[in-house]
Amino acid sequence: MFAMLSMFAVLFVLVVSIAAVAAAASEEQQCRGQDPMSSVSTFLGMELDYEIADRICCNNHRFAEPKGYHEWPEVDFYSKLDPNQETIFYDSVCGLPLFVAPRGRTFEEFVEESLYHGWPSFRPAEIVSENVIIHDDGRMESKCLTHLGHNLPNSGIDRYCIDLVCIAGTMPLAIQATTNTNNTTSSVENNTNTIEKEFDDNDGTIPASEFNATSYKSSAVENSGKYPKTKQRVLLAVGIIVPLLLIFAGYVFVQRRRKASRNNDKGVSIKTLSSDPEQQQPPPAVSTDAGTTNSDECEKSSESSTVPEN
Ligand SMILES: *[C@@H]1O[C@H](CO)[C@@H](O)[C@H](O)[C@H]1NC(C)=O
Ligand SMILES: *[C@@H]1O[C@H](CO)[C@@H](O)[C@H](O)[C@H]1NC(C)=O
Ligand SMILES: *[C@@H]1O[C@H](CO)[C@@H](O)[C@H](O)[C@H]1NC(C)=O
Ligand SMILES: *[C@@H]1O[C@H](CO)[C@@H](O)[C@H](O)[C@H]1NC(C)=O
Protein backbone atom coordinates (compact mmCIF):
# COMPACT_ATOMS: atom_id res chain seq x y z
CA MET A 1 0.00 0.00 0.00
CA PHE A 2 2.81 2.36 0.87
CA ALA A 3 4.41 1.64 -2.48
CA MET A 4 1.25 2.61 -4.26
CA LEU A 5 0.89 5.81 -2.29
CA SER A 6 4.43 6.85 -3.09
CA MET A 7 3.85 6.10 -6.74
CA PHE A 8 0.85 8.37 -6.71
CA ALA A 9 2.90 11.03 -4.99
CA VAL A 10 5.55 10.82 -7.71
CA LEU A 11 2.87 10.97 -10.35
CA PHE A 12 1.26 13.96 -8.71
CA VAL A 13 4.53 15.88 -8.61
CA LEU A 14 5.11 15.01 -12.26
CA VAL A 15 1.71 16.27 -13.35
CA VAL A 16 2.00 19.46 -11.32
CA SER A 17 5.41 20.26 -12.73
CA ILE A 18 4.28 19.63 -16.30
CA ALA A 19 1.37 21.98 -15.72
CA ALA A 20 3.72 24.60 -14.26
CA VAL A 21 6.05 24.41 -17.26
CA ALA A 22 3.10 24.69 -19.63
CA ALA A 23 1.77 27.72 -17.77
CA ALA A 24 5.16 29.42 -17.80
CA ALA A 25 5.53 28.80 -21.53
CA SER A 26 2.18 30.40 -22.28
CA GLU A 27 3.18 33.55 -20.46
CA GLU A 28 5.62 34.69 -23.15
CA GLN A 29 4.38 37.99 -24.41
CA GLN A 30 2.78 37.56 -27.78
CA CYS A 31 4.06 39.77 -30.61
CA ARG A 32 6.67 40.92 -28.06
CA GLY A 33 4.09 43.39 -26.84
CA GLN A 34 3.72 45.10 -30.21
CA ASP A 35 0.64 45.57 -32.39
CA PRO A 36 0.20 44.80 -36.09
CA MET A 37 1.41 47.50 -38.47
CA SER A 38 -1.29 49.99 -39.39
CA SER A 39 -0.61 49.21 -43.06
CA VAL A 40 -2.20 45.78 -42.54
CA SER A 41 -5.66 47.27 -43.08
CA THR A 42 -4.75 48.30 -46.63
CA PHE A 43 -2.45 45.41 -47.54
CA LEU A 44 -2.18 45.00 -51.33
CA GLY A 45 -5.19 47.26 -51.73
CA MET A 46 -7.48 45.04 -49.67
CA GLU A 47 -9.68 46.19 -46.82
CA LEU A 48 -8.51 44.02 -43.94
CA ASP A 49 -10.09 44.33 -40.51
CA TYR A 50 -7.36 45.64 -38.24
CA GLU A 51 -9.24 44.53 -35.14
CA ILE A 52 -9.27 40.92 -36.37
CA ALA A 53 -5.56 41.12 -37.08
CA ASP A 54 -4.79 42.43 -33.63
CA ARG A 55 -6.96 39.84 -31.90
CA ILE A 56 -5.92 36.79 -33.92
CA CYS A 57 -2.22 37.52 -34.35
CA CYS A 58 -1.34 39.10 -31.03
CA ASN A 59 -3.98 38.09 -28.48
CA ASN A 60 -4.71 34.50 -29.30
CA HIS A 61 -3.17 31.05 -29.59
CA ARG A 62 -6.16 29.04 -30.75
CA PHE A 63 -8.60 30.85 -32.95
CA ALA A 64 -8.44 31.82 -36.58
CA GLU A 65 -9.82 34.57 -38.78
CA PRO A 66 -13.23 33.59 -40.20
CA LYS A 67 -13.09 30.69 -42.63
CA GLY A 68 -13.12 32.01 -46.19
CA TYR A 69 -12.12 35.51 -45.10
CA HIS A 70 -9.66 35.67 -48.02
CA GLU A 71 -12.66 35.52 -50.40
CA TRP A 72 -14.74 38.27 -48.84
CA PRO A 73 -15.57 40.94 -51.45
CA GLU A 74 -13.51 43.65 -49.78
CA VAL A 75 -10.59 41.24 -49.43
CA ASP A 76 -10.50 39.18 -52.64
CA PHE A 77 -6.93 38.22 -51.79
CA TYR A 78 -5.86 36.13 -54.79
CA SER A 79 -6.87 38.73 -57.35
CA LYS A 80 -4.31 41.05 -55.75
CA LEU A 81 -1.39 38.71 -56.40
CA ASP A 82 0.64 38.54 -59.59
CA PRO A 83 0.00 35.00 -60.89
CA ASN A 84 3.25 35.11 -62.85
CA GLN A 85 5.61 35.58 -59.95
CA GLU A 86 6.24 34.57 -56.40
CA THR A 87 5.01 36.80 -53.60
CA ILE A 88 6.91 37.22 -50.35
CA PHE A 89 4.68 37.42 -47.30
CA TYR A 90 5.90 39.37 -44.29
CA ASP A 91 4.89 39.20 -40.65
CA SER A 92 2.05 41.64 -39.93
CA VAL A 93 3.77 42.87 -36.80
CA CYS A 94 7.53 42.88 -37.31
CA GLY A 95 7.99 42.46 -41.07
CA LEU A 96 9.98 39.23 -41.00
CA PRO A 97 9.71 37.30 -44.29
CA LEU A 98 7.63 34.17 -43.57
CA PHE A 99 6.39 32.59 -46.80
CA VAL A 100 7.20 32.76 -50.51
CA ALA A 101 4.47 31.41 -52.76
CA PRO A 102 3.73 29.76 -55.06
CA ARG A 103 6.85 27.65 -55.05
CA GLY A 104 7.11 24.09 -56.39
CA ARG A 105 3.57 24.34 -57.77
CA THR A 106 1.49 26.60 -59.94
CA PHE A 107 -0.31 29.71 -58.82
CA GLU A 108 -3.60 27.96 -59.59
CA GLU A 109 -2.72 25.01 -57.36
CA PHE A 110 -1.84 27.37 -54.53
CA VAL A 111 -5.14 29.24 -54.90
CA GLU A 112 -7.22 26.11 -55.31
CA GLU A 113 -5.86 24.45 -52.19
CA SER A 114 -6.24 27.61 -50.14
CA LEU A 115 -9.83 28.18 -51.25
CA TYR A 116 -10.67 24.54 -50.60
CA HIS A 117 -9.54 24.75 -46.98
CA GLY A 118 -10.72 28.28 -46.29
CA TRP A 119 -7.35 29.82 -45.39
CA PRO A 120 -4.15 30.61 -47.27
CA SER A 121 -2.33 27.27 -47.28
CA PHE A 122 1.41 26.95 -47.73
CA ARG A 123 3.68 23.95 -48.24
CA PRO A 124 7.16 23.14 -46.91
CA ALA A 125 8.94 24.58 -49.97
CA GLU A 126 7.16 27.88 -49.38
CA ILE A 127 8.00 28.56 -45.75
CA VAL A 128 10.94 30.62 -44.54
CA SER A 129 11.74 27.90 -42.06
CA GLU A 130 14.26 29.95 -40.10
CA ASN A 131 11.61 32.52 -39.22
CA VAL A 132 8.65 30.35 -38.31
CA ILE A 133 8.23 28.12 -35.27
CA ILE A 134 6.05 25.03 -35.61
CA HIS A 135 5.18 23.89 -32.12
CA ASP A 136 4.72 20.21 -31.32
CA ASP A 137 0.96 20.67 -31.24
CA GLY A 138 1.01 22.16 -34.75
CA ARG A 139 0.55 25.74 -33.68
CA MET A 140 2.62 28.12 -35.75
CA GLU A 141 4.07 31.47 -34.85
CA SER A 142 6.79 33.69 -36.21
CA LYS A 143 10.06 34.36 -34.45
CA CYS A 144 8.48 37.65 -33.36
CA LEU A 145 5.87 35.52 -31.54
CA THR A 146 3.08 36.53 -33.91
CA HIS A 147 0.45 33.78 -34.07
CA LEU A 148 0.15 32.53 -37.66
CA GLY A 149 -2.10 29.46 -37.69
CA HIS A 150 -1.70 25.67 -37.56
CA ASN A 151 0.07 22.91 -39.39
CA LEU A 152 -2.66 20.56 -40.66
CA PRO A 153 -1.00 17.99 -42.94
CA ASN A 154 -2.68 16.61 -46.05
CA SER A 155 -1.82 13.10 -47.13
CA GLY A 156 1.28 13.06 -44.97
CA ILE A 157 2.74 16.37 -46.11
CA ASP A 158 2.68 19.45 -43.93
CA ARG A 159 0.15 22.07 -44.90
CA TYR A 160 0.39 25.36 -43.10
CA CYS A 161 -3.08 26.78 -42.59
CA ILE A 162 -2.35 30.47 -42.09
CA ASP A 163 -4.34 33.55 -41.16
CA LEU A 164 -4.10 36.13 -43.92
CA VAL A 165 -4.28 38.97 -41.41
CA CYS A 166 -1.05 37.77 -39.77
CA ILE A 167 1.03 37.67 -42.96
CA ALA A 168 -0.18 41.02 -44.26
CA GLY A 169 2.91 42.93 -43.25
CA THR A 170 5.35 44.85 -45.35
CA MET A 171 9.10 44.85 -45.32
CA PRO A 172 10.09 47.32 -42.59
CA LEU A 173 10.30 50.86 -43.95
CA ALA A 174 13.85 51.27 -42.77
CA ILE A 175 14.97 48.51 -45.07
CA GLN A 176 12.95 49.77 -47.98
CA ALA A 177 14.77 53.06 -47.55
CA THR A 178 18.11 51.31 -47.43
CA THR A 179 17.42 49.26 -50.50
CA ASN A 180 16.38 52.45 -52.28
CA THR A 181 19.99 53.47 -51.74
CA ASN A 182 19.60 56.88 -50.28
CA ASN A 183 20.83 58.06 -46.98
CA THR A 184 17.45 58.62 -45.41
CA THR A 185 17.30 55.48 -43.30
CA SER A 186 17.36 57.01 -39.84
CA SER A 187 14.36 59.25 -40.39
CA VAL A 188 11.95 56.38 -40.94
CA GLU A 189 13.55 53.84 -38.72
CA ASN A 190 11.85 54.88 -35.53
CA ASN A 191 8.42 54.99 -37.10
CA THR A 192 8.26 51.29 -37.75
CA ASN A 193 7.79 48.22 -35.70
CA THR A 194 11.09 46.92 -36.86
CA ILE A 195 12.95 44.94 -34.28
CA GLU A 196 15.48 43.58 -36.70
CA LYS A 197 18.43 44.34 -34.51
CA GLU A 198 17.22 41.76 -32.02
CA PHE A 199 17.62 39.08 -34.65
CA ASP A 200 21.14 39.85 -35.73
CA ASP A 201 22.76 36.75 -34.37
CA ASN A 202 19.73 35.13 -32.88
CA ASP A 203 19.12 31.47 -33.77
CA GLY A 204 19.37 31.83 -37.53
CA THR A 205 16.44 34.17 -38.05
CA ILE A 206 16.69 35.86 -41.46
CA PRO A 207 15.71 39.54 -41.34
CA ALA A 208 14.01 41.07 -44.35
CA SER A 209 17.17 43.00 -45.17
CA GLU A 210 19.11 39.77 -45.67
CA PHE A 211 16.40 37.74 -47.32
CA ASN A 212 17.03 36.94 -50.97
CA ALA A 213 13.98 35.06 -52.22
CA THR A 214 15.73 34.11 -55.45
CA SER A 215 18.48 32.18 -53.77
CA TYR A 216 16.54 31.14 -50.68
CA LYS A 217 15.71 27.49 -50.15
CA SER A 218 13.48 26.35 -47.31
CA SER A 219 14.89 23.72 -45.02
CA ALA A 220 11.48 22.63 -43.74
CA VAL A 221 10.87 18.88 -43.79
CA GLU A 222 7.91 17.47 -45.69
CA ASN A 223 6.46 15.81 -42.64
CA SER A 224 7.41 17.43 -39.35
CA GLY A 225 5.08 15.21 -37.34
CA LYS A 226 4.00 18.37 -35.57
CA TYR A 227 0.28 18.69 -35.81
CA PRO A 228 -2.60 18.83 -33.36
CA LYS A 229 -2.96 15.09 -32.76
CA THR A 230 0.62 14.59 -31.72
CA LYS A 231 0.16 16.46 -28.51
CA GLN A 232 -3.13 14.79 -27.73
CA ARG A 233 -1.58 11.37 -28.10
CA VAL A 234 1.34 12.23 -25.90
CA LEU A 235 -0.93 13.70 -23.28
CA LEU A 236 -3.18 10.69 -23.51
CA ALA A 237 -0.24 8.38 -23.03
CA VAL A 238 1.11 10.31 -20.08
CA GLY A 239 -2.26 11.09 -18.57
CA ILE A 240 -3.99 7.74 -18.86
CA ILE A 241 -1.72 4.90 -19.84
CA VAL A 242 1.11 5.70 -17.44
CA PRO A 243 -1.15 5.94 -14.37
CA LEU A 244 -2.89 2.72 -15.41
CA LEU A 245 0.43 0.96 -15.72
CA LEU A 246 1.47 2.26 -12.34
CA ILE A 247 -1.78 1.09 -10.78
CA PHE A 248 -1.33 -2.25 -12.46
CA ALA A 249 2.24 -2.50 -11.19
CA GLY A 250 1.07 -1.56 -7.72
CA TYR A 251 -1.61 -4.21 -7.89
CA VAL A 252 0.89 -6.87 -8.90
CA PHE A 253 3.22 -5.73 -6.16
CA VAL A 254 0.52 -6.00 -3.49
CA GLN A 255 -0.53 -9.43 -4.76
CA ARG A 256 3.06 -10.65 -4.58
CA ARG A 257 3.39 -9.45 -1.03
CA ARG A 258 0.19 -11.18 -0.06
CA LYS A 259 1.35 -14.33 -1.70
CA ALA A 260 4.71 -14.09 0.02
CA SER A 261 3.16 -13.60 3.41
CA ARG A 262 0.81 -16.47 2.77
CA ASN A 263 3.74 -18.70 1.96
CA ASN A 264 5.27 -17.71 5.25
CA ASP A 265 2.43 -19.22 7.23
CA LYS A 266 1.69 -22.22 5.10
CA GLY A 267 -1.38 -24.30 5.65
CA VAL A 268 -3.53 -21.45 6.71
CA SER A 269 -6.47 -21.15 4.38
CA ILE A 270 -4.67 -21.33 1.06
CA LYS A 271 -7.93 -21.87 -0.68
CA THR A 272 -9.83 -18.83 0.41
CA LEU A 273 -7.59 -16.49 -1.55
CA SER A 274 -6.55 -18.76 -4.36
CA SER A 275 -9.10 -17.48 -6.77
CA ASP A 276 -7.57 -14.14 -7.61
CA PRO A 277 -3.77 -14.16 -7.80
CA GLU A 278 -3.64 -15.61 -11.30
CA GLN A 279 -6.47 -13.49 -12.42
CA GLN A 280 -4.65 -10.24 -12.85
CA GLN A 281 -6.84 -8.17 -15.01
CA PRO A 282 -5.34 -6.34 -17.89
CA PRO A 283 -5.91 -2.60 -17.56
CA PRO A 284 -9.17 -1.49 -19.12
CA ALA A 285 -8.84 -0.98 -22.84
CA VAL A 286 -7.88 2.56 -23.69
CA SER A 287 -8.71 3.99 -27.02
CA THR A 288 -5.72 5.84 -28.38
CA ASP A 289 -7.93 7.93 -30.60
CA ALA A 290 -10.03 10.14 -28.42
CA GLY A 291 -13.41 10.93 -29.90
CA THR A 292 -12.96 14.59 -29.18
CA THR A 293 -10.06 14.94 -31.58
CA ASN A 294 -10.75 17.45 -34.26
CA SER A 295 -8.34 17.05 -37.10
CA ASP A 296 -8.81 20.49 -38.53
CA GLU A 297 -8.28 23.04 -35.86
CA CYS A 298 -8.53 25.96 -38.23
CA GLU A 299 -12.05 24.94 -39.13
CA LYS A 300 -13.05 24.42 -35.57
CA SER A 301 -11.52 27.72 -34.65
CA SER A 302 -13.25 29.82 -37.21
CA GLU A 303 -16.67 29.04 -35.87
CA SER A 304 -15.71 30.12 -32.43
CA SER A 305 -13.83 33.11 -33.67
CA THR A 306 -16.94 34.88 -34.85
CA VAL A 307 -17.63 35.47 -31.19
CA PRO A 308 -15.15 37.91 -29.74
CA GLU A 309 -13.01 36.00 -27.36
CA ASN A 310 -12.00 38.31 -24.61
C1 LIG B 1 19.36 60.30 -53.61
O1 LIG B 1 19.77 61.59 -53.18
C2 LIG B 1 20.38 62.39 -54.19
C3 LIG B 1 20.84 63.67 -53.60
O2 LIG B 1 21.07 63.55 -52.25
C4 LIG B 1 19.37 62.60 -55.30
O3 LIG B 1 20.00 63.31 -56.33
C5 LIG B 1 18.93 61.27 -55.82
O4 LIG B 1 17.90 61.49 -56.79
C6 LIG B 1 18.35 60.44 -54.73
N1 LIG B 1 18.02 59.13 -55.23
C7 LIG B 1 16.90 58.55 -54.97
C8 LIG B 1 16.69 57.17 -55.54
O5 LIG B 1 16.02 59.05 -54.27
C1 LIG C 1 25.49 58.17 -47.82
O1 LIG C 1 26.00 59.24 -48.57
C2 LIG C 1 27.42 59.42 -48.51
C3 LIG C 1 27.81 60.64 -49.26
O2 LIG C 1 26.93 60.91 -50.29
C4 LIG C 1 28.07 58.16 -49.08
O3 LIG C 1 29.47 58.27 -49.01
C5 LIG C 1 27.63 56.99 -48.28
O4 LIG C 1 28.14 55.80 -48.86
C6 LIG C 1 26.12 56.88 -48.25
N1 LIG C 1 25.70 55.82 -47.36
C7 LIG C 1 24.87 54.89 -47.72
C8 LIG C 1 24.52 53.87 -46.66
O5 LIG C 1 24.33 54.84 -48.80
C1 LIG D 1 15.70 56.56 -33.04
O1 LIG D 1 15.69 56.05 -31.73
C2 LIG D 1 16.98 55.94 -31.16
C3 LIG D 1 16.81 55.35 -29.79
O2 LIG D 1 15.96 54.30 -29.82
C4 LIG D 1 17.64 57.28 -31.10
O3 LIG D 1 18.94 57.13 -30.59
C5 LIG D 1 17.72 57.88 -32.48
O4 LIG D 1 18.25 59.17 -32.42
C6 LIG D 1 16.33 57.92 -33.10
N1 LIG D 1 16.45 58.40 -34.46
C7 LIG D 1 15.63 59.29 -34.96
C8 LIG D 1 15.86 59.69 -36.36
O5 LIG D 1 14.71 59.75 -34.30
C1 LIG E 1 19.90 36.94 -54.87
O1 LIG E 1 20.34 35.70 -55.30
C2 LIG E 1 20.51 35.60 -56.70
C3 LIG E 1 20.84 34.18 -57.04
O2 LIG E 1 21.82 33.66 -56.20
C4 LIG E 1 21.58 36.55 -57.15
O3 LIG E 1 21.74 36.48 -58.54
C5 LIG E 1 21.17 37.95 -56.74
O4 LIG E 1 22.19 38.87 -57.05
C6 LIG E 1 20.88 38.02 -55.27
N1 LIG E 1 20.33 39.33 -54.97
C7 LIG E 1 20.81 40.09 -54.01
C8 LIG E 1 20.13 41.38 -53.80
O5 LIG E 1 21.75 39.73 -53.32
Measured distance between first and last alpha carbons = 47 Å
* Total of helices: 8
The percent range for helix content is 25-40%
SS-based class: alpha+beta
What does the largest sheet look like? 5 strands, antiparallel
Residues in β-strands, percent = 5-15%
Q: Please trace the helix and strand order, writing H or E for each element.
A: HHEEHEEEEEHHHHH
* Strand order in the largest sheet: 3-7-6-5-4
Enumerate the spans where pLDDT stays under 50 for 5 or more consecutive residues. 185-191, 272-278, 286-296, 302-310
Mean pLDDT: 80
Taken together, the total number of domains comes to 2
Describe what this molecule looks like in 3D.
With 310 residues, this protein is α+β, with helices and mostly antiparallel strands. It folds into two domains: 27-224, no CATH class; 229-255. Helices cover 34% and strands 8% of the residues. It has eight helices and seven strands, in the order ααββαβββββααααα. It has helices at residues 2-25, 50-58, 107-117, 173-179, 185-189, 228-264, 270-273, 297-305, and strands spanning 87-90, 97-101, 121-122, 132-134, 139-142, 147-151, 160-162. The strands form two sheets. A five-stranded antiparallel β-sheet has the order 3-7-6-5-4. A two-stranded antiparallel ribbon has the order 1-2. Strand 5 (139-142) and strand 6 (147-151) form a beta hairpin. Helix 1 (2-25) runs antiparallel to helix 6. The longest helix has 37 residues, at 228-264. The radius of gyration is 27 Å and the shape is elongated. It starts with a helix and ends in a 5-residue tail after the last helix. The model is unreliable at 185-191, 272-278, 286-296 and 302-310 (pLDDT under 50). Bound molecules: 2-acetamido-2-deoxy-beta-D-glucopyranose (4 copies). One 2-acetamido-2-deoxy-beta-D-glucopyranose binds at residues 186-187, 190. One 2-acetamido-2-deoxy-beta-D-glucopyranose (NAG) binds at residues 181, 183.
